[in-house]
Write a structure and sequence with these properties.
homodimer; 427 residues; alpha+beta; SH3 type barrels; eight-stranded mixed sheet; 8 helices; 27% strand; globular
Amino acid sequence: MIKANDPTLHSWIQIAPDSDFPIQNLPFGIFQTDMKDPRVGVAIGEYVLDLCVLGRYDMFVLLDIDPTIFHRPYLNDFIALGKPVWRAVRNRVSELLRNTNDEISGNSELMHECLIKRSEVEMLMPVKVGDYTDFYSSQAHASNVGTMFRDPENALLPNWKHMPVGYHGRASSIVVSGTPIHRPNGQTKAPEAELPTFGPTAQLDFELEMAFIAGKDTPLGTSISPSHAEEYIFGLVLFNDWSARDIQAWEYQPLGPFLGKSFASSISPWVVTLDALEPFRVHGPEQVPSPLPYLSSGGHHNYDINLEVLLETEKGVETRICRTNFRHMYWNMQQQLAHQTSNGCNIRVGDMFASGTISGSEKGTFGSMLELTRGGTQPLRLVDGTERSFINDNDTVIMRGYGEHHGIRIGFGEVRTKVLPAFLQEK
Amino acid sequence: MIKANDPTLHSWIQIAPDSDFPIQNLPFGIFQTDMKDPRVGVAIGEYVLDLCVLGRYDMFVLLDIDPTIFHRPYLNDFIALGKPVWRAVRNRVSELLRNTNDEISGNSELMHECLIKRSEVEMLMPVKVGDYTDFYSSQAHASNVGTMFRDPENALLPNWKHMPVGYHGRASSIVVSGTPIHRPNGQTKAPEAELPTFGPTAQLDFELEMAFIAGKDTPLGTSISPSHAEEYIFGLVLFNDWSARDIQAWEYQPLGPFLGKSFASSISPWVVTLDALEPFRVHGPEQVPSPLPYLSSGGHHNYDINLEVLLETEKGVETRICRTNFRHMYWNMQQQLAHQTSNGCNIRVGDMFASGTISGSEKGTFGSMLELTRGGTQPLRLVDGTERSFINDNDTVIMRGYGEHHGIRIGFGEVRTKVLPAFLQEK
């Protein structure tokens, strides 16, 4: 069988060489149009392939799956069918799109119905998220934040190198790319002030992260070993963990981040499968001290994915403010999932696990304004000459990511979010 | 119209004076039997009233609701119909159960079908929980823990009197009363040890809490004022926030509780409506300093609910180890919900908001072993002569609660959970 990742594959659809969505990618998402209610699609070049329509034309008949599984507002039911089914569907879509296949390309009625320009669809949340965990797995980020919020001499807390530290986030406020968010209100207290005040945050920030999506349930009271963890991962998205630093700083002791984060998190709409990311596996950094056996994870479990953050001003001027790489993470996804379930905590299809801010060790590689501007003290100069300590109203933050191997680019598209002014508080 | 709370009401069903479920209570839950799949029921004395059957017999026909709404595995769809509908259904059930009404009592076929002994049904999770927040709103508890974990001189952190501090918990592992849990494994490090180790917690603890359930969605980017918060609350349950103190102590800096909590939380199965708790409203403690306007909440917004915790050993010997009252909470539910949404975070029907451990100011009123035994240093002596620093394998922890007014007792039943030994870690 020809592998869906084979770099020699070509599609009968014209695909630009710098597209994130060649025939080797085939990420899954949920889209709708004026004519079509929410359903499962696959991105290919400039198009969305409508799996609902393919099912209706019996294109999956050999796979023995209920084709109405693609006529759902979330991917969860499809994901719950299991990894053999995702693989079979992705392989079948790959086959249908190959330049050697005419099942779609030779049927103009079907082709017209199943291919829609991506520019003409609205992308929705790909999954219904049950629980969402945010890890803190970049050593450079944890060191940078530890230095600024606490003590430069002991930037990494004693537990950090022994476990992938994480916390539970708010699932209800995870929104898809293109959904504008409001600057949050909140309680803050300047160090020198006697009393706190309430109002719009003055330190709105992004955090560049990636998140993986659980592909399989576990029962309560069982754990996942690192060596089995990949069986439980469906795919990855870009993740912007919006943060209000002044709210966070005043609230977070002793129980961790809460309202400084829960106003919104934004994700990219296309879920790139772990299978599609196979060519980008790399060794992670050496872990010293060696993790405890329940976190032991030899081999190549990091991913070489180039990441960038752009800030677009109200007038549409874009400045790239960060370039970094997902390979920098100290703790990998296997270890994060093993840690999460080590106490018997169950996971469910659609659960989301974000990496924590991805920062490299040099300034241009930091994944948050907090780090890029050293807590706002060294503002960034944008292309249009204006400066930013944090994010302004009407700014748009854009994150993009892709791997490249043998000339094949597997990308995530983008997560793009405009910041609207604070809303009026209910009286 | 006769009020469903009227203390002069009596039912044609015999109800013991010390029952938690007189005709003035009428809490909602989800039950199943060997013969019946999951559905909505109301507790009355020793019985469950099957609302599905009542719907089939046209008993709700004047309310103009789809009777299949009661044939669901969770209350969420029913709750989403809105407060006027819950009220109308509860009032109608009250009417049907009154000794002056014979619509059920005069129809032996219906009566036989709609009333099932509570001892013969299995209670299930009443709601599908989207997000779960755990607050930290008892001053005595926060002071006790701050003294033990940090600094007795500054037991309350500076933010505590300015906001209801809280954090996001894990929704997937919330289980209903009767579900046994396993002692969790986890990473711990004794203060004097050089390196952490992994294994079963040696400090398994409960936390006595109450939780309210959201009854109405809000859109992202809007907030709820304290004066409107009660419109968003469906009802309350007892909540046992299981905690592993040694895991928690090592992991919780800087991002808060994670695996020390996420292995399980247990709730009582019957949701007592806010309407049923109306007679128990009391003033909360004076709040000094005055909260900021967005948290300002005059009037009677605490509830006088007696609470107790019992520990039952493997041989069935029960010892009451705590008696306290929900009225002690410093921050009330109105303020918790206003705070949660003050940054625009949306809530959804079924979301759960736990109070934090409910402790009074004296030893017998503390809501956790951590406080009752001063961190395990002063073990409790049980009725059978054995001692406990924390919870042993095969112990059962039972929490009960009720309000009493004009001789009418409105109770929550119980949340009862047996602790099984730690599970084997996957290899």
